[in-house]
């Protein structure tokens, strides 16, 4: 059973960098063919796909967030990390990490972590 757990600060000040880590257990993040993904849900809105890091280490980001997003990984800890720079209150959301098989919906999700951007 694969499990994912998000961790990171719940409050970030405007213009700073949001940094979240997803710790994966029950499966390796280097296992073909999965995409390890970050998704968020702002209050009162739908899910928004942020980007992924693939099993090979390749990354792909949402065009609307690409200039501010970086996803990296630590294979020794079986973790992957989201960094979102220059945050504004519009980045306030519940952030989820998930495992996504190719051409399918996510099959495992973290429980989500609330991040609020406020001074």
**What is the percent of helical residues?**
under 10%
Q: State the oligomer.
A: single chain
Class inferred from helices and paired strands: mainly beta
How large is the radius of gyration? 13 Å
Please mark out the parts with pLDDT under 50 across 5 or more consecutive residues, or reply none: none
Total DSSP E strands:
11
Q: Helix and strand string, N-terminal first?
A: EEEEEEEEEEE
Into which percentage range does the β-strand content fall? over 45%
Specify the overall morphology: globular
**How many helices in DSSP terms?**
0
**How does the major sheet shape up?**
7 strands, mixed
Mean of the pLDDT scores? 97
Head-to-tail CA distance between termini: 39 Å
3D architecture notes:
- This protein is mostly beta strands.
- The chain has strands spanning about 5, 10, 20-25, 35-40, 50-55, 60, 70-75, 80-85, 95-100, 110, 115.
- A hairpin with a 6-residue loop joins strand 4 and strand 5.
Outline of the structure:
By secondary structure, the chain is mainly β.
Present the secondary structure layout.
Elements: E1 3-7, E2 11-12, E3 18-25, E4 35-41, E5 48-54, E6 59-61, E7 69-74, E8 79-84, E9 93-100, E10 108-109, E11 113-117
Parallel strand pairs: 2-11
Antiparallel strand pairs: 1-3, 3-8, 4-5, 4-9, 5-6, 7-8, 9-10, 9-11
Descriptive keywords:
119 residues, mainly beta, 4-stranded antiparallel β-sheet
């Amino acid at each position: 059973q694969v499990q994912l757990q998000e961790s990171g600060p719940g409050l970030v000040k405007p213009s700073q960098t949001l940094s979240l880590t997803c710790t994966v257990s029950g499966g390796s993040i280097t296992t073909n063919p999965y995409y390890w993904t970050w998704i968020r849900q702002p209050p009162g809105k739908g899910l928004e796909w942020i980007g992924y890091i693939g099993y090979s280490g390749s990354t792909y980001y949402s065009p609307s967030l690409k200039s501010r997003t970086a996803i990296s990984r630590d294979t020794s800890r079986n973790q992957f990390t989201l960094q979102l720079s220059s945050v504004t209150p519009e980045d306030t959301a519940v952030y989820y990490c998930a495992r996504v098989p190719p051409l399918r919906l996510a099959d495992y999700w973290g429980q989500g972590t609330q991040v609020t951007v406020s001074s």
